[in-house]
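Exercise 7. Given the components listed, write out the predicted structure of the assembled complex. Treat all entries as one system.
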Amino acid sequence: MSEEIIKAEGLTKVFNHSLTAVDHVDFSVKHGEIFGFLGPNGAGKTTTINMLITVLKPTDGKASVLGFDIAKQNQEVRNSIGVVPQEYTADEDLTGLENILLCADMYGIPRRVAKQRAEDLLKLVELTDFKDKRVETFSGGMRRRLELACGLINRPKILFLDEPTLGLDVQTRTATWNYIRTLKQEYGMTLFMTTHYLEEADSLCDRIAIIDHGKIIVVGAPEDLKHGLGGDIITIGIKENVDVSDLISKVENVKDVKKENGTYRVKAEYGEVTAPSIIETLRKNGFTVARLSLTEPTLNEVYLEYTGKSMRDAEESREAFASQRMTMRRARQ
Amino acid sequence: MSETNGNSQSKLHGLWALTNRELKKWYKAPVIFILSIVQPILWMGLLGKALNIGALFSGGTFSLPAELIQKGQFTPTQLALLGSYFSSLQTSILQGAFNTTDYFSFMAVGIIAFSALFTTMFSGMSVVWDRRLGFLNKALSTPVSRGVIIFAKVLSATLRSMFQAGLIIVIAIGFGLQFGSGFNPLYILGVFGMMFLLCVGLSSLFIAITIRSTRIETPMAVMNLITLPLMFASNAFFPTKFMPDWLQTVAKLNPMTYATDACRQLLIFATDWTQVATDFLYVGVFAIIVSTIGILLSWRFLNK
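Answer.
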């Protein structure tokens, strides 16, 4: 098997000849890694995943999954992947087990084999006790686990997860992360996921691609990306309404100063030493520091660095918005 | 490397699973199931018994004008003759208008096609729900063929309608359905056959309307718009021959007219087999054309 299990070249999706949702993206996913697409809502994450899982046809460019062309060999792709959509797709009127068996039937898995696998999967996601309960009665976390089990029924080599913890509370989210890690560690599965939660990308993904407005901005391991910023982040606000960017940038070890909404975002090496020097310099020049914070860079800083803005929700289609709201509502049930 | 783990995948795999998913929602949810049984009873009770058109022509609604009797123009024998003539008028008017002397029977059979219309309409709606709830995308990412996803909807609506047709016949018998003179219980199979064709056609039509929609409002409006003429510009409740010409033309194009006529020919009329054959031919062609369009559209819009 080739090292690159998913490969996209110039992958593009244009809706209605006008809206470019995904704009010539190139990336590759290595065997056995958790690869994450990080970006705000409407950045093109779900559209990319929908192309890879053969639900949408690319307008331009190409991609292969396990060596199969997503456009020409879609049946082969479908047979070798598992999908856990953003929405809760399980049928509320059916029981947990019935839902898994329905998924199995869609793959043409013989009933005898399917039953055995369903039992194993229910055990894996700890839903065995609830298998004969209607999904209607499930909590958000239980539904998410059921979706996970459904996505695994055909023993996929790659699992695609679209916003796997959307709307879940912190505790359930952490638990879901653990299931995902288990899949990687114990089953050697490759996982492709999208998320707009920075901490999720940070703690779960081996490598991430930051995507904004349909374009990939940077790809790398979260640690490398953060490290690549080259230093700590000092945020300073002063009482006076004067631009002191030049003054700060002259302080030793300061690498970069950006003024945003009246506060200064200073990138500096040795933050613990540099921060007091900045305060000292400002005080000498007659300015009063109103607030100051020192942080090690997070992915948000990485995002800021590359896009020039905080992660925000881009405009998106009414449908995508409604669907996401619905998922979040149902997660809280 | 295309490993399917020995799975049996054919062009039609998953069809029964997806059909049964729809059916389970119906027969495993007691409330919905009971409602779907109660609904035809209500329609039959309200339209068939409340709109008692037959009673309009019975002795209760008219009598010989009083002045005729008082002026003594007629002898008692003549009066008796006139009286009996008027009462036989009821039978001949009903027979002439409805081909049967019992409006309830006429009406009850009309309800078979009518309830099929509603059942298939809901199958159209469920496509929108599957899209909004993400199930459609989930199904599209599996090796199930696109046609099967749509055909499962059609099939489940058809099976439900056929079950309802059987139920309506049983209930109607309880309410006093009068079978035609040459009726044979085997003719009921013909009714099922006709319902199959009609429902395949109608649910393909509704799915073709909803397949592109991402929201429920638009197809709802379109369906409301077309169900009314489908229902009333047909012979389901009243014979078309009393309609104005333009409406008769609409009714003549309406597959509901042919489906209902076939059911009446088989159940309550003195069966005219040429007419039955015409009805089957028309509805059959309708079903083939519309389901082909439905499948083509589903290919087009499910492979965007």
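Discussion: Chain A has two domains: 4-221, 230-296. Chain A is about 40% helix and 25% strand.
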